[in-house]
Amino acid sequence: MDELFFLPKAPVAIPRSYWLPEDEPVKVSSQLIVIQPSKKEFARVQKAIASAGDSDYDMEIFNSLYRDSALILPHRRYDLLTQVFRWTNHSTYLGDPEEIWDPEAAMKEAKFLHFSDWPVTKVSRCRF
Whole-model pTM? Predict the structure, then answer.
């Protein structure tokens, strides 16, 4: 993923949240974020965190700050969710309703896999 260090200069590069309902406004995800170091932006994020409500998490904070200005990363390469493999309709992930879902091709294309498979508990919360 070294190529992410050579992106055009932007405060934040982030994929879209393709799994959300299509009738909702477009949102960015927070699984993988490329951040240009900046004292100004760090202060903005700190301020947003300090004023966040109880139901505001990282995704809500990044959307409030960067939804309309972030450099958008291609989600097919940088934001594959494990839940996609259980879907019956993959058009929002593929971006084309005519494209045929190929799970092996999706895994080969992906450089980042996020374990998110609600209602299955996240791996980080499992007690072994």
Answer: 0.83
